[in-house]
Specification:
Helix content: 40-55%
Oligomer: single chain
Mean pLDDT: 83
Number of helices: 5
Number of strands: 5
Largest sheet: 5 strands, parallel
Low-confidence stretches: 45-50, 122-127
Shape: globular
Length: 145
């Protein structure tokens, strides 16, 4: 029988850090594997007058390097001694769509996401990733406060 797989949507926010912690703690109890998925997306709309506007991404390779160095590697180090098989993946696209597809394609048993992410402005315009996933994901979804 295959091991259970818990996917965690991470974005560097305190909410995604808590989602990772929750997934790792449950994986220790159940023997599941944990995969952290960071989804990078090019901003479609670049509001000019908002302080919380996402930065314009000009160099994809540099952005991937920064995310790996500042988010994924620190999380891997933090949970390396927990006897949990933890892997990471960095994907470009719409976060809700990518997490939905990853969950299906990788036959994940559970998806963990933070209740909020980094962009409150995007949440107002587009609806949050967590909200979108809650309406379409086909596995248990854990929204971590």
């Amino acid at each position: 029988m295959n091991k259970c797989l818990y996917l965690v949507g991470v974005d560097g926010s305190e909410w995604s850090d808590r989602a990772t912690e929750r997934a790792v703690n449950l994986a220790k109890q159940t023997g599941a594997q944990v995969k952290l998925v960071y989804v990078l997306s090019f901003p479609i709309v670049q509001p000019m007058m908002l302080e919380e506007a996402p930065p314009i991404i000009l160099d994809r390779g540099e952005e991937e390097r920064l995310v790996t160095k500042n988010v994924l590697e620190p999380l891997k180090r933090k949970y390396s001694g927990n006897d949990v098989q933890l892997t990471t993946e960095l994907v470009w696209g719409d976060p809700a769509q990518v997490l939905h597809e990853c969950t299906k394609e990788q036959h994940a048993n559970m998806l963990f996401v933070g209740r909020r992410g980094r962009s409150s402005f995007a949440d107002l315009l587009l609806g949050s990733v967590a909200n979108k996933l809650a309406h379409r994901i086909g596995v248990p979804l854990v929204l971590v406060p």
